[in-house]
């Protein structure tokens, strides 16, 4: 066979999926410790990233780096015990797979991906060759992969298996990683023996659980990349995985010529978010694995999490959002609150996400965005700015501090063949010590003591934007955020109309003229996203 023989259409379920849940759970969850330093991609990997790694799932590596804060913590709290002792301390006594899957489904997820083996080499099922170093024979004494797969499918979720093929610190031990070159090149296993060991794991996962996603990490041993051998990864894809799971997909981190979708991670590899199918993965906080050192102050807000999903969907991708169970199997309360908040929005917003089609994103510009400060009585803007189009600024995914609005456009297709523009903005926060007043709808709510935001919309050539308040856009099930209403002052001759948030009465749908700049005023306390339908002029 040849690599080109694996070319195939993306399965419809994955094409339509906008949100997945990424579960990192392992012996590292017992220690649950890392420094909450920064997102991947914000600090060069060769400038102290590994010694101060915010990824708690890398605990086995970090505690072996001389002088690292994690090593000091491990000595002080765990007496410098062997890492594998943590496997025996891991009991999963409160783990309820069904309850977790209900939460994920209610959050609007389409699929869930579980770490079946991370870099520490411990497997969450009785994998061949692990010599008891798995969760069936030690620790929880449970087939956690099987429990996750069964519970996910009962909730209508697709099930994915993460597997670390590029690193195994137990089967192929080496010095601690201090640089990116050590991880991706110098100290990664390449030999035929490890390739056979890892491939046996994949075969067992497919035979037992038929995963809808095979999500490899880091790389794959070079000896297994050659085609038409008894340890060939490509032949395994063709003859075993796709034959067993015809609707299955594989990611790009095998570093071979075939994949079904590309990946980015936090702010790293954002160049992969383009025309080909792609997925951005990130944790709710700075770590994928459970980290007792982080909480809501390091995490996405509900609004930022929703923004992350909508932004990726509008640009043709999807988000694999990481959650981190504690050793007992329960999620931290702050992660549950975020998922519940996403679910509240997704109950209606997902109807619009389903209309988003990958090809043909139509740019709708946002110009002159500014945040007016109450201290200046609404007259002088801060130095805030926003992207000029939906396809701009991939590196700022996640609502930057002074990013006040963005228009995100869905291509025609899906429900009703409609096309939508999203103006997403997190909830406005009043300035410290200020009074929040409702303001005047006609002038856009720029009253003293309030904090408001302005953007300017420009409709695409030959089209108009229609804003529908109250019940939402026909046929979508979408409603505006709680308390949002619009009032439209009469347009002066030759001038675009101002739109303002106010109390009822709400007018019928209004059209914004094509090609004209239309100011839109956001009064303090309003919520988003705001949705416009793009219509023919």
UniProtKB/TrEMBL annotation:
Region named Disordered: 376-397, 430-452
Pfam families recorded: Alpha_L_fucos
Keywords annotated in UniProt: Glycosidase, Hydrolase, Signal
GO cellular component: lysosome
UniProt xrefs under Gene3D superfamilies: Glycosidases (3.20.20.80)
Domain of life where this protein originates: Bacteria
Top-level EC class: hydrolase
GO biological process: fucose metabolic process; glycoside catabolic process
InterPro entries linked to this entry: FUC_metazoa-typ (IPR016286), GH (IPR017853), Glyco_hydro_29 (IPR000933), Glyco_hydro_29_N (IPR057739)
One GO molecular-function entry: alpha-L-fucosidase activity
EC number(s) reported in the record: 3.2.1.51
Domain Glycoside hydrolase family 29 N-terminal: start-end pairs: 6-347
Chain's role: Alpha-L-fucosidase is responsible for hydrolyzing the alpha-1,6-linked fucose joined to the reducing-end N-acetylglucosamine of the carbohydrate moieties of glycoproteins.
UniProt family annotation: Belongs to the glycosyl hydrolase 29 family.
Name by which UniProt lists this protein: alpha-L-fucosidase
């Amino acid at each position: 066979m040849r690599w080109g023989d694996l070319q195939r259409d993306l399965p419809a379920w994955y094409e339509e999926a906008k949100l997945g849940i990424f579960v990192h759970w392992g012996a590292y969850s017992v220690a649950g410790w890392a420094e909450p330093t920064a997102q991947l991609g914000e600090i060069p990997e060769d400038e102290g990233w590994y010694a101060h790694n915010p990824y708690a799932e890398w605990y086995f590596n970090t505690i072996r780096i001389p002088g690292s804060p994690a090593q000091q913590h491990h000595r002080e709290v765990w007496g410098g015990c062997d890492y594998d002792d943590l496997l025996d301390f891991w009991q999963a006594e409160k783990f309820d797979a069904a309850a977790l899957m209900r939460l994920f489904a209610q959050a609007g997820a389409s699929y869930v991906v579980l770490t079946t083996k991370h870099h520490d080499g411990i497997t969450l099922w009785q994998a061949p060759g692990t010599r008891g170093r798995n969760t069936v024979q030690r620790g929880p004494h449970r087939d956690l992969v099987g429990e996750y797969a069964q519970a996910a499918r009962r909730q209508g979720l697709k099930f994915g298996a993460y597997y670390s093929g590029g690193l195994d610190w137990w089967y192929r031990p080496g010095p601690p990683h201090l640089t990116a070159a050590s991880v991706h090149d110098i100290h990664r296993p390449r030999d035929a023996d490890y390739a056979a060991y890892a491939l046996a794991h994949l075969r067992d996962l497919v035979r037992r659980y038929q995963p809808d996603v095979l999500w490899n990490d880091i790389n794959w041993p070079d000896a297994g990349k050659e085609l038409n051998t008894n340890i060939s990864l490509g032949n395994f894809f063709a003859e075993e995985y796709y034959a067993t799971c015809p609707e299955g997909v594989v990611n790009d981190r095998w570093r071979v010529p075939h994949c079904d979708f590309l990946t980015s991670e936090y702010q790293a590899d954002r160049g992969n978010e383009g025309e080909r199918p792609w997925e951005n993965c990130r944790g709710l906080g700075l770590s994928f694995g459970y980290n007792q050192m982080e909480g809501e102050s390091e995490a996405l807000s509900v609004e930022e999490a929703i923004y992350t999903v909508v932004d990726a969907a509008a640009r043709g991708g999807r988000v694999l959002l990481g959650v981190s169970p504690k050793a007992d199997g329960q999620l931290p309360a702050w992660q549950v609150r975020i998922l519940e908040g996403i679910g509240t929005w997704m109950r209606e917003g997902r109807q619009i996400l389903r209309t988003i089609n990958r090809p043909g994103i139509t740019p709708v510009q946002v110009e002159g965005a500014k945040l007016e400060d109450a201290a200046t009585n609404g007259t002088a803007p801060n130095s805030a700015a926003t992207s000029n189009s939906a396809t701009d600024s991939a590196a700022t995914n996640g609502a930057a501090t002074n990013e006040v609005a963005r228009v995100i456009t869905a291509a025609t297709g899906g429900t009703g063949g409609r096309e939508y523009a999203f103006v997403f903005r997190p909830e406005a926060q009043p300035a410290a010590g200020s009074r929040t007043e409702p303001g005047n709808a006609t002038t856009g709510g720029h009253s003293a003591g309030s904090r408001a935001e302005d953007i300017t919309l420009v409709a695409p050539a030959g089209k108009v934007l229609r804003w529908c308040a109250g019940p939402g856009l026909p046929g979508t099930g979408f409603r505006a955020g709680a308390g949002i209403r619009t009032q439209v002052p009469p347009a002066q001759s030759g001038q675009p109309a101002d739109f303002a948030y106010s109390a009822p009465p709400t007018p019928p749908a209004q059209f914004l003229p094509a090609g004209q700049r239309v100011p839109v005023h956001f009064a303090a306390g309003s919520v988003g996203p705001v949705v416009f339908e793009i219509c023919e002029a």
